[in-house]
Amino acid sequence: MPLLQMKEMVTPLKLIGIKLFKCNEGHLYVKLWSRPRKRIFG
Q1: 1-42 pLDDT tens trace
Q2: Nearest to 23 by CA among 5, 38, 1, 3
Q3: Residue 19 lies inside a defined structural domain of this protein
Q4: Is residue 19 classed exposed, middle or buried when 0-12, 13-18 and 19+ CB atoms within 10 A define those classes?
């Protein structure tokens, strides 16, 4: 599995533990609390 460069997108959801990430390829990932990231779009 290749390593992906991801940037965290700042949203109000971060206050309750939901983080959104965007990788260089344009895919969108979500991380809920301490669970692993999952791709949601792209």
Answers
A1: 567 789 999 999 999 999 999 999 889 999 999 999 999 976
A2: 5
A3: yes
A4: middle
Residue 1 located in a structural domain:
no
Number of domains in the chain: 1
Could you tell me if residue 30 is inside a domain?
yes
Question: Exposed/middle/buried for 1, CB within 10 Å: 0-12, 13-18, 19+?
Answer: exposed
Domain membership of residue 15 (yes or no) is: yes
**3-class secondary structure, 23:** strand
